[in-house]
Give the backbone structure.
Amino acid sequence: MDKEKRAAVEAILFTFGTAVELGKIAAAVELSEEETKEIVEALASEYESEGRGIKIIELEGAYQMCTKSELYDYLVKIAKQPKKYIMTDVLLETLSIIAYKQPVTKGEIEKIRGVSCDHSVNKLMEYGLVKEVGRLNVPGRPILLGTTEEFLRSFGLTGVDDLPGFNPDMIDEFKNQAEQEVQLRLDI
């Protein structure tokens, strides 16, 4: 049996994850359906004899690679684990603006950051850290954003009043940095 063809059949079944018709597999690996079926059956037999966590099943003339049902409990343990968020600097910056200025609109966030915040806000909403808390009563009725209970849990806060305050010296330093940045842009 050709190792490359065997590997190709295995790759097809692994990649698709759904049942693939024998004829399509055979056409892809340029073998007859009979030769392809032999490869599939050999792979299935090998997985079973080696006690692997996967198996190949036949479904109405099609084949599918799947997890052995007796191992589902292990998969459930992984699926139930809490999701890890990837908090980039941009997400943290956007989140901090929302946390300190809430309720706040996207327009206000963009004015502070100087760039679009759509992606950041969407990600923070996806993570459950930010939510819509109402609408501003002006033309266009922009959405007001605020933090969630998940935000408080994630950062070990009992309420937004627990957010760290600003040191007045740091505020002056931030103002100076902002003024210098504006001056640099004007000089360009």
In short: The longest helix spans residues 168-187.
